[in-house]
Amino acid sequence: MMAHIPTPRLLPLTIFALSALLAMKSVTLVRAAVGDAEKTAAESATAATAAGAGRATTVAPTTAPAGGAAAGGTAAGAGTAAATAAKAAAAEKNPATALQSPPSAPTQPPPVPTVTDGERNVLLELRQRREELDARDAVVAARESTLAAAELRLDVRVKQLETLQHQLEGLQQARQQRDDASWQGLVKLYESMKPRDAATIFNDLEMPVLLGVVDRMKDRTAAPILAAMQPEKARELTIKLATLRTKRAAEAQIN
After folding, report:
1. CA distance 242 to 131
2. Does the reported pTM lie above 0.85?
3. Residue 23: per-residue pLDDT
4. How high does pLDDT run on average in the chain?
């Protein structure tokens, strides 16, 4: 009777080492590829899986079914790891492909912060204060508009008064010229008379008329007439004439 030879225990470890080595070589080939990274990674993973299964079948054809299943699971795991590494390498080579990945689940919005009663009161007070300031600004703007309109009307009125003043000054000058012309006629009339005859008439004239005539006469012509007049009348005329000329001189200094 033949002795039973036990199955070597190193066979699973050898298969795992070969699968890992094949996976590392597949990752290196995928990173060096330039074309379609995903297609190359898929082909490398398929090749790795097939090669691992073939080697497991070649090395241990008499392995128990449990051992074969373990070897196949190890090879499949190595192929999955190789495919994952290939996808990562493809994402590094082509970022646009990674961006085309399906979107993740939408995140929930952050919770709305709650407002306390104190903060609400502060906000209400600030709003009321702003409304009060807006109303005050509106009142100030309306008042400024009213003042601007009043200033405009005042400027127009001042211009009208200035025009009227110029007109009155012109009328006054014209009247003064007419009065001077009338007085000059009387002055020439009395200057052409004899002093005694003129004095007789001056004694009977009212003081305003007499003062106007004598004030416009030349001093050398008025002196003989005053000498021939009544003393009381001549004294009163002299006082009135001195007062008039003093007042006129003061007004001329002021102007």
Report:
1. 75
2. no
3. 77
4. 74
Three-point CA angle 166, 170, 175, nearest 5° = 145
Q: How many CA atoms lie within 13 A of 16 on its CB side?
A: 10
Rounded CA gap, 195 and 2, in Å?
A: 196
Name the token pair of 129: 């204060």
Sorted by sequence, the CB contacts under 8 Å of residue 89 that are 6+ apart come out as: 27, 30, 31, 37, 41
Task: Please tell me the distance from the alpha carbon of residue 201 to that of residue 189, in angstroms, as a whole number.
Answer: 12
DSSP character for 116? Answer: -
Question: Nearest CA to 60 among 2, 128, 8, 115?
Answer: 8
Q: List Cβ neighbours of 229 (8 Å cut-off, separation of 6 or more).
A: 199, 202, 203, 237
Q: Note whether 199 and 229 are within 8 A (CB).
A: yes
User: Which residue bears the tokens 């009125």?
Assistant: 157
Alpha-carbon distance of 34 to 117, in angstroms, equals 64
Q: What is the pLDDT of residues 234-243, one digit of tens each?
A: 999 999 989 9
Q: Which residues contact 55 (CB under 8 A, 6 or more apart)?
A: 15, 18
- Quick count: other Cβ atoms within 10 Å of Cβ 88? 16
The amino acid present at 252, given as its one-letter code, is A
Output the CA angle 13-15-19, nearest 5 degrees. Answer: 115
Which segments within 81-157 are labelled E, that is strand? none
